[in-house]
Amino acid sequence: MDYVKAFLIGGLICALVQILMEKTKMMPGRIMVLLVCTGAVLGAAGVYEPFQKYAGAGASVPLLGFGNVLWKGVKEAVDAGGFLGIFQGGFKASAVGISAALVFGYLASLIFQPKMKK
């Protein structure tokens, strides 16, 4: 049942973002920034953590989850090291995810022949 819940909630998030992309004139990059910032704000408000526990990977994988990870990393680093934690906390918390995205993106480019859009 956890897989179904994660699939449905993650799919709902993706569908809402797709509607936002289709119905507004916002560029994809701005929508991505909006999602990351929304995840960070919801994490700071204490709303995202219970939602993520309920939704599982459906809430932790999309960009909303990335914003929440950044928020948690910054909060922990500020609590441990003070002001400088603002600058290093997000990097430490998200390093594994960013590294995985780079490695798997590179491997996918070796397997599939990428082409530039025309």
Please describe the structure with a list of short key phrases separated by commas or semicolons.
118 residues; mainly alpha; 6 helices; globular
Structure, described:
This is SpoVA/SpoVAEb family sporulation membrane protein. Keywords: Membrane, Transmembrane, Transmembrane helix. This protein is an all-alpha fold and about 120 residues long. Helix content is about 80%, strand content about 0%. It is globular and about 50 Å long.
Topology:
Blueprint (H helix, E strand, L loop, with lengths): L1 H22 L4 H17 L3 H8 L1 H4 L2 H19 L3 H27 L7
InterPro entries: SpoVA
Organism: Anaerosacchariphilus hominis
Keywords: Membrane, Transmembrane, Transmembrane helix
Would you report the number of β strands?
Answer: 0
- The average pLDDT score comes to 89
Helicity level: over 70%
What percentage of amino acids are in beta strands? under 5%
Along the chain, the helix and strand elements come as: HHHHHH
Largest sheet report? none
Radius of gyration: 16 Å
**Structural class per helix/strand content?**
mainly alpha
- End-to-end distance, in Å? 43 Å
Estimate the global geometry from the Cα principal axes: globular
Low-confidence stretches: none
Can you summarize this structure?
The protein has 118 residues and is mainly alpha-helical. The protein is built from 6 helices and no strands. It has helices at 2-23, 28-44, 48-55, 57-60, 63-81, 85-111.
